[in-house]
Amino acid sequence: MNSDSFDRSSDRSFTAPIPGGTEAVVPVSALNRAIGTLLERSFPLVWVSGEVSNFTRAASGHWYFSIKDAQAQMRCVMFRGRAQYAEFMPREGDRIEVRALVTMYEPRGELQLNVEAVRRTGQGRLYEAFLKLKAKLEAEGLFDAARKRPLPAHPRAIGVVTSMQAAALRDVLTTLCRRAPHVPVIVYPAPVQGTGAADKLAAMVQAANARNEVDVLIVCRGGGSIEDLWAFNEEVLARAIAASALPVVSGVGHETDFTIADFAADVRAPTPTAAAELVSPQRVLLLRDLDHRHAMLARGFGRMMERRAQQLDWLARRLVSPAERLARQRTHLQQLTVRLASAGARPVRDAKARFALVQMRWQRCRPDPARQQLALDTLAQRLHGALARRHERATARVASLAARLDVLSPQRTLERGYAALLDVQSGEALRSPAQLKPGKRLTVHLAQGAADIALADVQPRLTEGF
């Protein structure tokens, strides 16, 4: 529905009569305009309650949705000028009350509610049950990503759990026939709507696991309201899918539809057709890949044959006749003989060259006796002269010291008339008259000799000099 809905104020002034008579022809636009005017005049602003369904917020800011109850539904539009003042944005399954005017959308001749105000009255019963069950199973870990299993790349058989009368089954079979006509498909029929549908769907999932004749399982149905899809929101089906040993792909409704089965399955597909595409390898791509691999194998085999042929040619070139082989060995032996003779002569030449070099170095370093004798004589003369000069210096020094010693000699002192007195017992020289005692034996040293004397009477006298 577009934002260019008719202007209610202008349509109220429209009073185009509907011509009477069987021959009158009325344009569709005029008829719709008249109906819209009649509706707006007959139904004042009224509060309408219901559950939100198919809510859409357009890029222009307008809201488009439906409100429904157990028996009927009505399309609604809330333009941006009104929507921007709303206290909340409705969500799928919310139970709300709208203050609206009954109008006609002339371009398509659809009855709708032009909403001026909206207020919340609580979530819908089914949606509330959906959220409660989802939270319960999620808390148990049934939706954990670690439990999800990858889909087989090349399934041997594909199972489909759905109704035999469902349009989704035709879409799935058409897609599988187009993409993988070589893969067999087994249908496990079960009702997808109505009382007991969830139990029968769960039983078919369990039967597919028990029979173990497929590699992957599709649980699908077409789109619909939350009531139509409720069988896929039942706990029994969710637990059967979670306990399945086969990988399960859920393809329920349209892209915007989410069910408990979607969360419990290993892979969620937006539509049944998408589910069929997920589980089936595309035959055209497989054939293309097979052709590519066949070409690679052929090229590899051709290259291997070429290498083997080249190796065979190389081995054939190495294979020679015995006569030619003997000739080659004879030639090789001659070459070795020449190399041996050359190798034997080379050490002799090298030794002679080294001997000549050593001889030349020895001649250069050979001693000269005459020259060495002359150098030795020169050194002997220098040595004799040095010794004579050293002896003269020593003799002169000894004479000088002897003269100095002679001057300081005690004998010279005794020759001048002095005498030295020594105690016979101690051998010490006497220096004080106090040491002279009667009866003490002394040795007197004079210039011409020495004499031992004994003191009889001593009278000491201290003087400072002669």
Automatic annotation (TrEMBL):
Catalyzed reactions per annotation: Exonucleolytic cleavage in either 5'- to 3'- or 3'- to 5'-direction to yield nucleoside 5'-phosphates
Subcellular location, principal: cytoplasm
Broad enzyme group: hydrolase
Protein keywords: Cytoplasm, Exonuclease, Hydrolase, Nuclease
Stretches assigned to the OB-fold nucleic acid binding domain: 27-118
Compartments it resides in: Cytoplasm
Entry-linked Gene3D superfamilies: 2.40.50.1010
Coiled-coil regions listed: none
Alphabetized Pfam families for the sequence: Exonuc_VII_L, tRNA_anti_2
Ranges for domain Exonuclease VII large subunit C-terminal: 142-452
Enzyme nomenclature, EC number: 3.1.11.6
Subunit relationships: Heterooligomer composed of large and small subunits.
HAMAP family, A to Z: Exonuc_7_L
Job description of the protein: Bidirectionally degrades single-stranded DNA into large acid-insoluble oligonucleotides, which are then degraded further into small acid-soluble oligonucleotides.
Protein name, per record: Exodeoxyribonuclease 7 large subunit
Organism encoding this protein: Paraburkholderia kururiensis
Gene name as annotated: xseA
